[in-house]
Amino acid sequence: MLDYCNSMYYCLLKTQLTILRHIQDSLARAVVTARRSSNPDQILQSLHWLKVKKRVEYKIVSTTYKIL
After folding, report:
1. Per-residue pLDDT averaged across 27-49, rounded?
2. Is residue 36 part of a domain?
3. Is residue 18, in this structure, part of any structural domain at all?
4. What would the pLDDT profile of 24-35 be if each residue is shown by its tens digit?
5. Is residue 55 part of a domain?
6. pTM of this prediction?
7. Other beta carbons within 10 Å of 55
């Protein structure tokens, strides 16, 4: 989902990005079967996942690079 609409996600409000971040954190916990109290930053790092805002920025930059 994040791969195809990066320009749309780039303009989201901070509150909307926070909601996406909570969804990503929950998914990461489910993937590694961690407790809810686990630190999501460490889990994302162990999975080699970027946070939502950084991922959107990375995808826009990499797509622009490929086009050029």
Report:
1. 91
2. yes
3. yes
4. 999 999 999 998
5. yes
6. 0.75
7. 18
